[in-house]
Design brief:
The protein has 405 residues and is α+β, with helices and mostly antiparallel strands. The chain is built from 16 helices and 7 strands. The C terminus is likely disordered.
Length: 405
C-alpha cells in the first residue's frame, strides 16, 4: 500500500527504528527520537545501495516521489544516483571554495606584502564596495564578461569612471591569477577592452605660489589640533605623499644627518627614499617630538582605539575647513612644489628625484636612490626659506636660482 500524508503525520516513534514503505524502494525511516528520514533502496551493478532523500516534513511525500523518479531515470541511463549526489555535493563545495570573493581574497593576501597599507586598504575597499556584492558569491569559473560589464556600468552611472577603470584593471589581475592557479582557463576581462566609458584623468587641485601668504594665515586661524597643523606644514616642507607622512616613524628621522629616510615598504615606488631636512623642517620635528615623541609614529591617530595612525582623510578635511574645498588637497602640495621649484630654476631631474617619481629607465633607477643628494639638500633648504617668507607674508620670488647652487 502506498503512503499517505495522514499516515506519515500519525506515525509515532517506537523503541526501535522502523520503516513505512511507499513502494519501488522508497520508504520513510522513523527513529526513536521522532525524526523521519526519506530513503531509497536500489541496486547498482548488482550491489544494493541506499540513497538519502532528505527529512520529513522539509521534503514532502510528493517531493520524495519526484526524487525517486529522478533517481530511477539515472539508473535507467546507467548512472549511480548516489555517485551523482556526491559529485553534485563536491561541485557545490568546490564552487563555494572558488567563488570570486574567495579567489580575490587569496590574490589580495598573496600580494598585500608588496603594497603600502594605504594602497592595500583602498584596493580592497573598492572591491568590497562594488564587486563583491555583485559577483562575490558566484563561482569564478561562471563569471562572464557580461557579468563584469553589468557591475562596472552601475559604477559608471554614478559618474565615477576612474573607479570603474581601476576595478576592471584589478579584476583583470584577479582573473589572471585564477588562470595561473587552475581555477579557470580564460580571462573574461580581455573581452572588455574599449567597453567602458573613457576616463579623463584630472590633476590634483592645488594653489599658486602667490596664494601661500593667505594660506598660512588661514592655517593659523583654522580650528583644529596643533598636530594637524604640524602635519600640513611638514607635508608642505617635504612634499612627500600623504600615505608616507601618515606611516612615518621617529626611527626614520636622522636628526644628526638631517635626513628623513622613508623605508621601501612605505613608499609608492617600493624603494628607499631620502628627504633632506631643511632647518625649518628640523625645528618643526623638534616641536612635534614634544607631542608624539614617546610613541612610534610621528602622527598617531587622535582616536587611537580605532586606528593606529592619522586618518587618510584628516589633512583634506582640515583643508576643506579652511575654505579650500575643490581648490586644494594634500597631494596638491607636490604639484605646488614641483611648479615653483621649476620656476626657481632647479634642474627637472633634481626635482623629479625628490618627488620620487617612477624612473622609466630601470638601470638608471638603481643608481638614483641617493642621486643628486647635495643638490637636493640645497633645494630643500631654499624651499624651506621660500615657505618661511610666504608665512611671514613677505613677497615671494620665483626667479632663477641656478647661480646660487
Amino acid at each position: 500500500m502506498l503512503l499517505t500524508n495522514t499516515a506519515i503525520k500519525n506515525a509515532k516513534p517506537k523503541e526501535k527504528p522502523y520503516k513505512l514503505a511507499d513502494g519501488d524502494g522508497l520508504y520513510l525511516l522513523i527513529k526513536p527520537n521522532g525524526g523521519k528520514y526519506w530513503r531509497l533502496k536500489y541496486r547498482y551493478v548488482g550491489k544494493e545501495k541506499l540513497l538519502a532523500l532528505g527529512t520529513y516534513p522539509e521534503v514532502t511525500l510528493e517531493e520524495a516521489r519526484d526524487k525517486r523518479r529522478a533517481a530511477r531515470k539515472l539508473l535507467t541511463n546507467g548512472a549511480d544516483p548516489s555517485g551523482k549526489k556526491k559529485e553534485e555535493k563536491r561541485r557545490k563545495a568546490y564552487n563555494v571554495e572558488n567563488s570570486f570573493q574567495v579567489v580575490a581574497k587569496e590574490w589580495f593576501d598573496t600580494n598585500k606584502p608588496k603594497w603600502t597599507p594605504d594602497h592595500a586598504e583602498r584596493l580592497w575597499r573598492r572591491l568590497d564596495l562594488h564587486m563583491i556584492p555583485e559577483i562575490g558569491d558566484r563561482p569564478i569559473a561562471e563569471v562572464k564578461a557580461l557579468d563584469l560589464l553589468d557591475a562596472l556600468r552601475k559604477i559608471e552611472k554614478r559618474g565615477t569612471t576612474e573607479t570603474s577603470h581601476r576595478l576592471l584593471q584589478t579584476c583583470g589581475v584577479i582573473f589572471r591569477y585564477a588562470v595561473l592557479t587552475g581555477r579557470i582557463q580564460y580571462n573574461p576581462t580581455q573581452d572588455l577592452k574599449g567597453a567602458l566609458m573613457p576616463h579623463k584623468a584630472e590633476s590634483h587641485p592645488t594653489i599658486e605660489a602667490k596664494a601661500l601668504p593667505d594660506f598660512f594665515k588661514q592655517l593659523e586661524a583654522v580650528e583644529t589640533t596643533e598636530l594637524n597643523k604640524l602635519a600640513i606644514r611638514l607635508l608642505m616642507l617635504s612634499f612627500v605623499r600623504q600615505g608616507e607622512l601618515r606611516q612615518a616613524k621617529w626611527e626614520d628621522i636622522d636628526f644628526k644627518a638631517k635626513e628623513w629616510r622613508l623605508p621601501a615598504h612605505t613608499t609608492k615606488m617600493r624603494d628607499l627614499h631620502i628627504v633632506p631636512l631643511a632647518k625649518q623642517t628640523i625645528k618643526l620635528l623638534e616641536d612635534l617630538k614634544h607631542l608624539t615623541g614617546e610613541g612610534a609614529l610621528l602622527f598617531p591617530s587622535q582616536q587611537r582605539r580605532r586606528h593606529a595612525m592619522m586618518s587618510e582623510n584628516t589633512i583634506n578635511h582640515v583643508l576643506r575647513k579652511m575654505g579650500y574645498r575643490d581648490k586644494l588637497v594634500g597631494h596638491g602640495f607636490r604639484a605646488l612644489a614641483s611648479t615653483t621649484l621649476n620656476e626657481m630654476g632647479f634642474p627637472p631631474d633634481v626635482i623629479e628625484r625628490q618627488l620620487a617619481h617612477m624612473e622609466r629607465n630601470k638601470v638608471r633607477a638603481a643608481y638614483n636612490r641617493a642621486e643628486y643628494l647635495p643638490q637636493r639638500r640645497d633645494m630643500m633648504q631654499k624651499w624651506g626659506d621660500y615657505l618661511d617668507k610666504a608665512a611671514r607674508e613677505e613677497k615671494v620670488i620665483t626667479g632663477n636660482f641656478k647661480k646660487n647652487r
